Structure formats: C-alpha cells, structure tokens
Amino acid sequence: MTDTDIFDPSVLGRLLIVAGSDSGGGAGIQADIKTATMFGTYAMTAVTAITVQNTLGVQDVLPLEPALIVAQMRAVLDDIGADVVKTGMLHSSAVIEAVAAELDAREGLQLVVDPVMIAKGGASLLQAEAIQVLRNFLVPQATLLTPNMPEAEALTGHPVRTLDDQKRAGDALMGLGPQAVLVKGGHGCDDAGQVHDVLVTADSLEVMSSPRIDSVHTHGTGCTLASAIAALLAQGAPMREVVSIGRDYVHDAIRTAPGFGKGHGPLNHMHPFQVLD
User: Fold this and answer.
1) Which of 275, 206, 196, 191 is closest to 240 using CA atoms?
2) Where do the structural domains in the chain lie, given as residue ranges?
3) Active site residues
4) Domain spanning 14-273 has what CATH number?
5) Going by C-beta distance under 8 Å and a sequence separation of 6 or more, which residues neighbour residue 217?
6) Above 80 in pLDDT, residue 188?
7) For 28-42, what is each residue's pLDDT tens digit?
8) CB of 98 closer than 8 Å to CB of 18
9) pTM greater than 0.85
C-alpha cells in the first residue's frame, strides 16, 4: 500500500479531522477515520454537522454551533495534540471563521483543506456566501488545498472544465497563499479515458494521470483522498509522494468498491487487507 522508504512506520502520526458526519459511512468523518487507520495514523475528530444520508443522497443536516466545534478542537489539541489537521464540511461562514481563528492561534500544525461544497447526490454542503470566507480565512493557512473541478471553479470564479483549466486554477489558487494545491480531475476525462489531477507547489506543476473507472460507487472519494494525504503527512512523508500514494489508494478503493446501496455507493477502504484481483 505504501512505500515504507518515505516515512517512518514506527511513528504514530496524529490527525485531527474537522468535518461532518455521514450516517451512510461512505464519506465525511467516517471515511476519514477508516482511511487514516488504514495508513497507520491516529484519527481524532471535531464534528461540524450531523447529516442524514445514504447512497441516494442527503436527506437532512443538523449543523453544530461554531463554539461547540472549536471546543472539540481545543479538547483534542490541548491534550493529545496533532501533527496535521484536515478540514472537510464546514457549512457556514461562522464555522469557517471560528475554525480558521483556532488554527491560526496554533503553531506547528500542517493543514489539509478539502473545500467540501456539494455532496455526491447534489446537496449543497456549503452556504454560497461562505465561499469568499473560505478563500480569505482558511485557504491561506493550508499546507495543501484539494478542490475538485467544480470547487476550483467556485473558488477562482473561472470555468474549470479541461486540463489546461485545472493548471490555470491551480496557479490562481496558489496566489491565495496555500503551500500547495491539488486540483482533482474526477469530474473530467480526456479522449483517451484518462483522469488528470494537477499538483501545484511553489516551484513545480505536475500532472498525475490514471484511467477512469466507470463506476457509480464513488461516494467519498474526495474525503478519502484528502485523508490519505493528511495521514501520511502526519507521519512525515513528503508532499509529492503522499499525493501519489493517496491517488493509488483511492483508485483501488473505487476499483474494488463493494457495490453497497442503491445510489452512489461507498469505496472499499479496506482493500489493502484483502486479496483481490
């Protein structure tokens, strides 16, 4: 599953996940915990919202108050500490501002920002007016920002439909202050059936490609990829390698998805423990 030359498996990294709960278990905090565990990283959580959802979509959302979210973060960080924080569903301007302020007051934390905006079934998970707040307060703190194509489009205000668009979006988002940006291409596909992700850092731009898997069982891919990257960063692995390993992990998790549910089914987070074709 991983190249043991790029990190020390004897070091138990600590990952604090600030995100929403998915009752169906395919995305959100449930997917994050499964992924972090598979990569040997200790997962902790600050729940931002409780969702009522399954593979058919989100039926209801109960947002938690910003003060309660920050209290969870403080309880964990003041006692156990963390090497990396990964954010997912933050849902409102007030939550983003509160989380960003708490992280800004801490030193030595790496931050992976997955700017969750829309659920796989189409439900909005981020208020429209919160996008600018995300740009201004949280994105500049990110060690890595991981938008998909629609999220990159919302954050930049420009269409992101092609590989060239992804490259331009990555450069534009770097201008907001993150250390690196991964513009995911799962919503697009070239004529050769390849999906492209674009990793942009201060000194490089790299296109990572893989064959598209024709499957509806892709619920939680963004959460899973961001958490795989965050889990390996927590163990001291370098950015380019963790992105590559995370992409491979998600690709096989889609390929071996169990087919649960009647809609957009979950990935197979457990595939490294299984003997599969």
Assistant:
1) 206
2) 14-273
3) 184, 218, 220-223
4) 3.40.1190.20
5) 254, 257, 258, 259, 260, 264, 265, 266, 267
6) no
7) 999 999 999 999 999
8) no
9) yes
